[in-house]
Amino acid sequence: MSTTVTRPDESEVTAPARSGRTSAGIRRALPAAAILVTIALIWEAVSHWFGVPNYVLPSLDSIWSTGVSEWPGTLASATWVTTEEVLLGFLLSIVVALVVAFALHSSRVVRNAVYPLLIGSQAVPVVVIAPVLAIIFGYTITPKLIVVTLICFFPIVVNTIDGLASVDPELLRVMRTLDGNRWATLRRVEAPAALPSIFSGLRIAATYAPIGAVFGEYAGSQNGLGYVMIQAIPQLETALVFAAIFILTVEAIICPWAREGKR
Amino acid sequence: MAGTSGTPAAKGVPLQTDANPGAPGTGGTSPADAGGAGTPLPAGTGLQLSGVARMFGPVVAVSGVDLEVPLHSRLSIVGPSGCGKSTLLALICGLDEPNEGTINVLGATTSADRLRRCAWMPQRDLLLPWRDVLGNAALALENQGVRRRTARQRVGHLVERFGLAGFEEKLPYQLSGGMRQRVSFLRTLVAGKEVLLLDEPFGALDSITRADLQEWLRTALDAEPRTTVLVTHDVEEALLIGERVVVMSARPGRIRAQFDVHLPQAGSRRELIRHPEFAELRDEILSLLEAVT
């Protein structure tokens, strides 16, 4: 199989790289860091020297100082609320997605019945769904979890189904001659074979989760980073909006990145 | 537990992979009963194919195949590529159903029952890359409901005989092609089926390893006979392992000729190949194959 063929090469590549890992890591991160620093410098220059008003484009240092001063009162609890929505929603979407994917894989009837609905669920704009959910469930965490799940579960389902279907058909025949029933094949062959694709699905989904949480909060909430933004924008507290945006961005980057580090 | 798993090693018979004596249902049906006195079969009947045909749309893969393999005897099938040899094996072991004709495997005629009696080994090893040697070999036992640790222990006793000692915990990508094929072989045999269906099992190996395994398989099957059907391109391999050799023609696959092989049992591979009757048969089959293609 192709995986076994490529594997030795990978180990050959990583083994010597491990010794000089840190320096190589820094060297790889250098160009990206240079771009970030350049953007930051241009940002600072524009906001300080070109007379752009602070409520249009706050300078980075004012965003930082606003973030620090608002952290204890507003941002800390908002970050906590949003993080909770992101993590719980992500967890829920993993459970839903895996159940749906295994059901779709195992039964043709389920596949015919559910697959069109699944694609339909992605055609419905979440921005429109969120307020309706807020009407139904109020300002609770429930509508946020539903929105996060709606956004996140699809990439997980698609990748999981792909992974489960990636098994060599002849191997499935071998399993049948080795007394492997449907369940044994799923458990001992298809599920392990699908793991890499499941994880790449999770990584995609993890970056979507904060977006879902903020949509949910926009539609109606009493706390959270989305709530902070929607309060700050009419009052032209742009620095606070940017502080919230940066926190969200960091969150969206950390989720999938932490997973990659673990592998 | 230790007693049962110790049995195969103690017997010292190469093919004795009686690894599932306690397995319920599936394990009990084939190997233990088939040779015993209590079988409902007429004595000596192993495989019986009559008038078997298989079509894939307009393509006739095999047609009008009548075959009989007595219990515990070995049949080799040779033929040009695409003559439906592999289709025939899939039909016998119940992975596929014929459009016409009947297949009887030790009394089993439905595909589910045939699957329970047949072990099938394709040319590619198809090992699970995330399982080590023992884990791959123990797959059938786990499928039959044996607990993982017990299954690994039972398989562990057989590893040495397959030339895999010291490699128990290696993953497939760490093994040579010959070793992987031997793991695949071990996995097939551990399933404890009465009928062995080999689809070019040594086709992907280098000639030295192949010769080695041919000799090993021959002595192993002599020591503990199983009803075996071997499909191969290699006429020598067919003659070495088969007690009867069947020549098939290409599209639609039909049986053109059958040869009974009478060679001294005890001879080594080299002696057999030098044997005049061996050479004569090989010549005859080769010229027939040329005519067929």
Descriptive overview:
The complex is a heterodimer of chains A (263) and B (293). With 263 residues, chain A is mostly helical. Chain A is 86% helix and 0% strand. The model of chain A is unreliable at 1-17 (pLDDT under 50). By secondary structure, chain B is α/β, with parallel strands linked by helices. Chain B has one domain (2-127, 194-292): 3-Layer(aba) Sandwich (Rossmann fold), CATH 3.40.50.300. Helix content of chain B is 39%, strand content 22%. Chain B is built from 13 helices and nine strands. In chain B, the strands form two sheets. In chain B, strands 5-6-7-3-8-9 form a six-stranded mixed sheet, sandwiched between helices. In chain B, strands 2-1-4 form a three-stranded antiparallel sheet, covered by helices on one side. Chain B is globular and about 50 Å long. Chain A binds chain B through residues 1, 3-5, 7-8, 168, 170-171, 173-181, 184, 188-189, 192, and chain B through 26, 90, 93, 95, 115-116, 118-120, 122, 124, 126-130, 139-140, 142-144, 171-173, 187-188, 191, 193.
The ordered string of helix (H) and strand (E) elements of chain B is HHHEEEHEHEHHHHEHEHEEHH
Query: Architecture of the largest domain in chain A, CATH level 2?
Result: Orthogonal Bundle
Total helical elements of chain A: 10
Distance between the termini of chain A: 22 Å
Give the count of helical stretches of chain B.
13
Helix content of chain A: over 70%
Biggest β-sheet: strands ordered side by side in the sheet of chain B: 5-6-7-3-8-9
* Low-pLDDT segments, ≥5 res of chain B: 1-42
What CATH calls the topology of the largest domain in chain A is MetI-like fold
Instruction: Give helix % range of chain B.
Output: 25-40%
